[in-house]
Amino acid sequence: MLTPLERVLFLALAAGCLAYAAVGFRQVFAAIRRGHGGFPRDRWPQRLARTAVQVLAHQTLWRTRRPVAVFHAFILFAFTDYFLVNVADLVEGFTGFSAAHRGGVWGIYNLVADVLSVLALVGMTYFLVRRFVFRPKSFRFNPQVMLLPGVEAGIRRDSLVVGGFILFHVGSRWLGQAFKLAAEGPDPWQPLASAVSTLFVGMPEQALEVGVHATWWVALGLILLFLPYFPRSKHIHLFFAPVNLALGLPQPPGRLEADGKGAARLEELPWRRILDAYACIMCNRCQDVCPAHQTGRSLSPAALEINKRYYLNRHLREFSRGAPSPPLWEYAISVDAVWACTTCSACVHVCPVGNAPMLDIVEIRKRLLEEGVVPDTNLQEVLVKLGKYGNSFGKPERQRGQWTKGLPFRVKDARRETVDVLWFVGDYASFDPRVQEVTRTVARLLHHAGVDFGILYEGERNSGNDARRVGEAGLFEVLAEHNIRLLDQATYRVILTTDPHSLNALRNEYQALGRRYPVVHYTEFLLQLLEEGRLKVVQPVGRRVTYHDPCYLARYNRVTEAPRGLLRRVGAELVEMPRNRENTFCCGAGGGRIWMREEPGERPSESRIREAATLGVDTFVVACPKDYTMYTDAVKTAGYEGRMVVCDVAELVAQAVGVRAEVLAQV
Amino acid sequence: MDVVVCCKLVPDLVEELEVNEAGTDLDWAAVRWVLNEFDDHALEEALLLKESTGARVTVLVPEADGAEEVLYTALAKGADRAIRLTGLPPGAGSRALAAAFSQVLPSVGYDVILTGVQAVDDVDGQVGGLLSGMLGLPYVGVVTGVEVDWQARRAVVRKEYAGGVVEELEVDLPAVLGVQSARKPPRYAPVSKVRQLMREGKAEALPAELPAVPRAAVRRVFRPQTDRRAQILQGPAEQAAAQLVAILEERGLLRR
Amino acid sequence: MAEVMVFAERQGDSLAEVTYELLAAGRQLSEALGCELSALLVGPGAGGLASGLGSADVVVCAEDPQLAHFTPDGTLQVLEAAVQERSPRLVLLPSTSQGLDLAAPLAARTGLPLVAYCRELWAEDGVVVARSQVYGGKLMVEVALPERGIACLLPGSVSAEAGRAPGTPRVEFLSVPAVSARARFRQRFEAEAGDVDITREDILVAVGRGIGDRENLSLVEELAEALGGAVCASRPLVDSGWLPKNRQVGKSGLVVKPKLYLAVGISGAPEHLEGMKDSELIVAVNTDARAPIFDVAHYGVVADLFDFLPALTEAVRQRKG
Q1: How many domains are contained in chain C?
Q2: Is the CB of C215 inside 8 Å of chain A's CB atoms?
């Protein structure tokens, strides 16, 4: 179909663009390779299969913004198809072979291309209108979020370029079909193009020929021209998102890997975190679920990835050649934002391309601590207390078991006696006066059910989960080593805990020290007791309640149904929070935030109470000691005292099985 | 440009302090030892001097349970030398400690000696003041900031008085300074760094002879009897508030 | 004959309040020991101030012009010379910023035993006995000085009344070589002059760490306003910059004796108590029933201040109409 001149020109353009693009892509790979870490060699067939399903079924996009996922599906399927289409068009240009007016396999091919082209145009129009006309709040950053200069304008420009590219590339190709069909007659397998072709039917043959050539050039030429643009565009996610998804994240997502010296600069991060910057589609979903950003703080996980990407865009040549970059807190994320993270892993969970901004933040924290920069004196005091006393309250170790004094029975000492269940109590459950009540209730329940359980008394230390997330890897090791020593000496079948943070540490993080403990959350255990009949409901609770999924239980460790099962069994009517299960919204205590000075402004916990208040319930059920303290405070400070009461699921169970008289505070 | 920080470990007040059977002393076996909080500030001030003038910082700590931690934390924070003083039993007292310091300091070398202005257990005198008298050096206590002009052999210090008054004094070196608080809060030493230094074993040891010092005879040690305990107003907030208002009105404190 | 010597602390051209407390204690001791009470007054114009030290038998003056401002080293030299010359049975110093610079160095230089942080001093059969507070006030220690010694008295431990007794002490001048002070005064920074002088307020609402966030100060301010009083604070809040230094109550702040001292969220560390324990009516609000503040308070409320403060503010407003 193409003239000899056209062929030459095309090949020249192709050569030039490909060469130029190759340089850019090579630099991108070199940049990513500057980061440390190995390349996984295992289970690639499984990875590829899983990713194929993930991408084609849009699994990662379906978590939020579902309408958007639909339109994106249009574009994704269109583009996948267009691999074939572009090749076919290329062949057509050079050999004249046309797939039009054919039936059978080619007919289906044409139909698919026809429909998908239109869907792609619809989809892309939707996205452009959404971004530039509707302007959703999600695309805006909080005022104190650090952004490289020109980032917002850059994103807009990039969006226009990509949008324009897609519209023109697809539109031009499709129009080309219309021109062809206007000359050759309609094709039943290309109904939409045929319909448009009727507009061109009256045109002179010459004009149609020009149209066919012009649209061919625009369609394929744009691809060529776009190739070198990829390294600087978020559109490169075409390649890197599936790669990122295939490489996967540690399980559970948010789990910290082996501890190094942290990172101050981009090149000191693991290479996976540099890859994140290239996979990022700048959709800001992570920012929308971030408890810090949603309460007006300076932290935006999206801004972090975007800043990294823009830095790389602007310095790709030097960076790929090994030039040092400035500390990340100078351009990518402010120190204030680094410490604002609660490590709830919502950003990791929601990201459609498998990014993990939270892991960057922990790396930076490690380095800041290493350099002695602890901007928060409260946090510093707590770290010192943890080191000295093994708990964040600064209480002497021997007071750990004091909470048992209020009980009418003795709790076994698992250090000396064999137990069936070793209860790892945790700091807040042991020392906070309000939570101690709940701890005692749980003890009574276990006793009532005849469970053979014991605690470690003074031997227990903070599990180290949050110390690690604050960046104090050394402290984590010290605490973990101590706990491991005691657990190794004890005889038990399973470890029980009411604290999701401790559960996470014992089950997942202690693997870094070679231990993987069988840990069960008390909600799972209590449910089991009810199912086995060792606890019996004598008085259903009969309240309308809502339940808050703890981050470390629901997102990190995927325990969501046991608490719900419990609530059902005790006769509570559960009204789900809008953001529930793995989409739960953090109370704001994690990542050491509960150890830091309070910031002015709304707290995530207050926001969550307000969310609950819209449900018409007066009981907010929790299953985590820190949640208990955060939400009882939030009810007061958000002004819901008297209208909302916070209670632990154990209190409801106790009431239902008749272990204690009415425990719940009256509203 | 040698800055020496003389530290002591004191009983941790977080614990219950037990008195021995005779009632004449603390039950030392039950004591958890921690670094005197003011010495931590002295160390911080010393490190700030190191950062601004390049001085060398040496830390002296008497041997006790927990001294290792203190020594290596000091090294992790940036001290150049950490020396453990052996030969002093717990409960030897501040005066004996000051005398022991004065024994070894000449061999350690010093231009400025910093120490915490006081400690919770120095009823027999503050280490800094005693040390200055023993070494014949000038002493300024309640110091909240130190600057040194090494050339002129002079320090300029800020001394705090009651009521928020601060005075600036010039002190000839060598001198002993009793630090109340450093210009910045004591810095943090990451645990991994402390552990790493412990593995390297850089701390040194110096023996000191337990000196004979004048002591006042301790007759007894006891828990204070609190003769007055507040009358607690009972009931929920509103009720207690009403009771309090009645009391205030009775005393004529609710003038309009 | 050996005497009891009191170091008279000056505040510029007048005598510090603690000096009278020292004199009162010294008077009692000197009578019990059967000896004289002397007061050492240092610096220019000492002779003129001597009349204010009526409860002493003799005022020893050292008027070296170099000691116009208190300078640790210089004053120590004079003090040491005085002690060497007069061999007092007991030297009494205040446990203040000045006293802390003098007592321990003096002890080291004279070889005399020293007892610090005394709350009480008395004599039994010629033996001076001191009762001092240690370990943050958790323990008391009783120490005997059978022979010569030095004692440091905590301000506010003894009533100053007896120390103010009028009298005409002898004035003697110490013959000392000129002082060569190795520490010299440069300049003085007054406390930030503030809007309010809390030492003159009748009603103070004091706030401590229990208040939590800075924003919550408004609860305290509202209550103070309703009561017609002023807000003051313990050291941690001033250190954090939430309130200016002129609002700080305690050992390193101001000493207050209002008609009503309402301590909110304050645990009652000894350093704070020193600044307010002589208040006429002390009411404490704290969630910890065992907080030391309840030992000095007349009335206490064991409650969450976030519940109690608004309730009290409301009740006060209603009662006032």
Answers
A1: 2
A2: yes
ipTM of the complex model: 0.90
Residue C188 lies in a domain: no
In a domain, B245, yes or no: no
For C306, the closest chain B residue by CA position comes to: B237
Whether residue A372 and residue B14 make contact (CB cut-off 8 A), yes or no, is no
Within chain A, what is the greatest distance between any pair of CA atoms? 99
* Token duo for residue A204: 């002179």
Residue range C31-40: mean pLDDT, rounded: 93
Domain boundary among C126, C156, C173: C173
Shared domain for C159 and C305, answered yes or no, is no
Separation of alpha carbons A657 and B8, rounded Å: 56
Decide if A636 and C213 are in contact by the 8 Å CB cutoff.
Answer: no
Whether chain A has a CB inside 8 Å of the CB on B184: the answer is no
| Rounded Cα gap, residues C213 and A636, in angstroms | 14
Beta bridge partners of B172: B154
pLDDT in tens, C209-246: 888 778 889 899 999 999 999 999 998 888 778 888 88
Q: How would you label A88-111 residue by residue, b for 16+ Cβ within 10 Å and e otherwise?
A: bbbebbeeeeebbbeeeeebebbb
**Shared domain check, C100 and C156:** yes
Query: Which chain A residues contact residue B190 at CB under 8 A?
Result: 369-370, 372, 472, 474-475
User: Residue C208 is part of a domain; what is its CATH number?
Assistant: 3.40.50.1220
Query: What is the C-alpha separation between A202 and B215, in angstroms, rounded?
Result: 119
What is the domain range of residue B143? 2-207
Task: Let me know whether C123 and C271 are in one domain.
Answer: no
Could you tell me if residue C227 is inside a domain?
Answer: yes
**Test mutation, C110, C139, C185, chain B, max B CBs within 10 A:** C139
Q: Looking at the domain assignment, is residue B83 inside a domain? A: yes
- Whether A636 contacts chain B with CB within 8 A: no
Is residue B142 domain-resident? yes
Flag whether B222 is in a domain: no
Are C129 and C82 in the same domain? yes
Q: Does A636 contact chain C (CB < 8 Å)?
A: yes
Q: How confident is the model at residue C193 (pLDDT cuts 50, 70, 90)?
A: low
* Interchain pair C69, B141: CB under 8 A: no
Contact B230 C297 (CB under 8 A): yes
Task: Evaluate if residue A663 carries a pLDDT over 80.
Answer: no
Cis peptide before A550 (omega within 30 of 0): no
Residue C304 placed within a domain: yes
B214 and chain C in contact, CB less than 8 A: yes
Regarding whether C17 and C157 lie in a shared domain, the answer is yes
CATH number at residue B72: 3.40.50.620
What counts of helices (H) and strands (E) characterise chain C?
Answer: 9, 17
Helix H segments across chain B?
A: 37-53, 67-77, 94-108, 127-135, 191-200, 237-250
Residue with tokens 């227990």: A460
Residues C241 and C304 in one domain: yes
Nearest to B13 among C138, C182, C202 (CB): C138
> Hey, are the CB atoms on A600 and C215 less than 8 Å from each other?
yes
Nearest to A421 by CA among A358, A476, A492, A355: A492
Q: What is the pTM of this model?
A: 0.88
Q: Is residue C182 part of a domain?
A: no
Note whether C220 and C157 are same-domain residues.
no
A435 vs A386, A428, C246, CA distance in Å? 19, 7, 39
Q: Are A284 and A302 in contact (CB under 8 A)?
A: yes
Question: In terms of residue numbers, what domain contains C35?
Answer: 4-173
Nearest CA to CA, how far is B171 from chain C (Å)? 4
pLDDT at A667 over 70: no
- Taking the C-alpha atoms of residue A628 and residue A499, their distance in angstroms, rounded to an integer, is 11
For the stretch A119-139, pLDDT in tens is 999 999 999 999 999 999 999
B226: closest chain C residue by CA: C295
